[in-house]
Amino acid sequence: MRIKLHGTRGAYPTSSKETRKLGGNTSCIEIIENNERLILDAGTGILEIDFDSYSTADRIDILLTHLHMDHIQGLGFFKPIFDPSKEIHIWGPGGSSYPLKDRLNKFLSPPLFPVMLRDIPSKLVIHELPNKPFQIGCYTITSKFICHPGPTVGFRIEVASKAVAYIPDHEPMLSRPHLFKEDNWISGFDLCANADLLIHDSQYSKEEYKHKVGWGHCTMKIAADLSKRAKAKRLVMFHHDPAQKDADRVKLFKEFKNTNSYDFPIELAVQGHKIKI
Amino acid sequence: MSAHEIEIILSRQLADCLSVPVFIVDPDGTLIFYNEPAEKILGQRFEDTGEMKVGDWGNDFHPHDKNGDPIPAEELPLVQTIYSHRPAHKTFWIKNFEGKAFEISVTSIPIVGRSKQFSGALAIFWDNNLKI
Ligand SMILES: [Zn+2]
Ligand SMILES: [Zn+2]
Fold first, then answer.
1. Element (H, E) at A149
2. Distance from CA of B17 to the nearest CA of A (A)
3. Which of A128, A163, A200, B117 could be joined to A94 by an S-S link, Cβ 3.0–4.6 Å?
């Protein structure tokens, strides 16, 4: 499985030169196995995907963790959506009251977007994620609701005995500074268990988080502790704060690494990086 | 053992922050969490007991009416919610682990998350003599 990080930024895209190292695009990763492509989230990173390489299939599958703007704002602008020969399947979490299609329509319609959802030239097929594992081509996909404001899931994608977990927006604990000691009480635990790669939220420093409890994101330490508890083999820290310069983020990461020890590799997500598992 | 649904995990996080006793059960009636104020009623710590099957905890607080007659388990709100998947409420008497009797009102609610499945129930035990 090859994973390409097209957008690693949280909240909003940024083009300042201080954020170029880790990248300014919002959440989107591309997974390729043989010639089959899966896209996770449709932030502005989706605009970086080369739809003429790896897979030119007419069917494109996009899995959305949730509908916060940083995870969908590329959706209306990526090329295949205007190509009538393409069939685009969008998978996202169901809501308590409003169907996914209605919620997506709020964004993909005037005044926020010039074209109505029904007038988009490609064939759009919208699916609410099932409550059990399902298959798209070679991929087995599991989604679970996790702790983040609004209907939000994390994903576990499995193929050929390899697993990647993708939980870009996640606040595993709301009321305590540490994870519960029982694994089955940890939000998202099953998704990460023994994953070959975990791509996880780590937006805040410990100091910042004190003022942002309940905002739906977590610290580097919580992300690493979750990874350790779940025995994930590698952790990529994702969803960088656009207000933070990369130099400060890297400094924070170095301090974190110097004061904590984990027996698996941990790295900061960098836009454009390819990971093979 | 697979992880609890997010609505159950968040219920525990809420219970953890409350100063009134809260009990959380799974769809089978197994007590999967009780908070610190609830520990004072059961006389046991969640840290020590972990989960408890319904038969192991349902009578621990000796539910009874004002005449002292025991109330059968199936009339307790939490048990009713497990069977009916509906909210339930009842005022009755209990004894805490020190043997002290007091009147409480129990409200239990079903926990149904976005998957629309019944994932358990939560009950608060309100001490009717409590002044807040
Ligand atoms: Zn986000
Ligand atoms: Zn979000």
1. none
2. 7
3. A128
Measured between alpha carbons, how far is B10 from B12 in angstroms, rounded to an integer?
5
Considering only the beta carbons, identify the residue of A175, A176, A184 that sits closest to B4: A184
Chain B residues whose beta carbon lies within 8 Å of the beta carbon of residue A176 = 13, 16
Residue B1 lies in a domain: no
- The answer to whether position B49 is within a domain reads yes
What spacing in Å lies between the alpha carbon of B120 and ligand 2's midpoint?
27
State the complex-level ipTM.
Answer: 0.85
What pLDDT, on the 0 to 100 scale, is given for residue B97?
75
pLDDT class of B103 with cuts at 50, 70, 90: very high
- Per domain, the residue ranges of chain A are 2-270
Q: Quick one: average pLDDT of A257-265?
A: 96
* Nearest ligand to the CA atom of A13: 1
Overall domain count for chain B: 1
**Sheet with B31-34: strands ordered across:** B31-34, B22-25, B118-127, B101-112, B88-95
The CATH homologous superfamily of the domain defined by A2-270: Ribonuclease Z/Hydroxyacylglutathione hydrolase-like (3.60.15.10)
Domain that holds residue B109: 6-127
CATH (domain of B41) = 3.30.450.20
What is the value of pTM for the model shown? 0.93
3-state secondary structure of A185: helix
Average pLDDT of the segment spanning B66-91: 94
Please compute, for residue A169, the number of CA atoms within 13 A of its CA located in the half-sphere on the CB side: 28
